[in-house]
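help with these tokens:
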Amino acid sequence: MAFPPDPGLREMDLVILRHCEKSGEGLCDPLTEKGAADAVTLAKRLEGEGIDAIFASPYRRSQETIAPFAKAAGLEIVVDGRLQEWQISPTALKDMKDHAPRMVGDRHYRAPWSETMDEVWARLVPALEAIRASGAKKPALACHFGVLSIAMTHLSDSFGPQHWKLINQPTAVHAHRGEWKILELEGVAPARLHV
């Protein structure tokens, strides 16, 4: 993986979340009943983490995942389109067993009608720079599997594709100064891993 163009991005103190269990793949598909309950549990877990700003993808599932915490903390959810999911075409998803090893092994590989890992990172860099410029000390980013995995692969030398299997629905990762840890979510049984 390439290093970020601005090493200062690794200095950021971030909590990056993958959304809770979703009811579908669409932009407006809500969380399932289990996902909504897990979002409430997640909100309780995030209390005391020092989160002072929230940024979310335009997908409803990401915003619903962080909404209970935002309400409890009195924080606004700022929607940023650059945090949207890694765009992988239905054709590529259908044949993911064939594409996944190449997508993970070659950040320039383009599955049919899909974004490369480098293209996802290229849109995440300005989003992270804007978040850093916002003055937030410890922002939370409510997003998706692809965004979390690609961002963490760049923000930490010790997080690689072998760790992607740890990212379930939901997952919360704390990243700071190139280090990372998964925040344990007591009482939340991970949804079936769906990449």
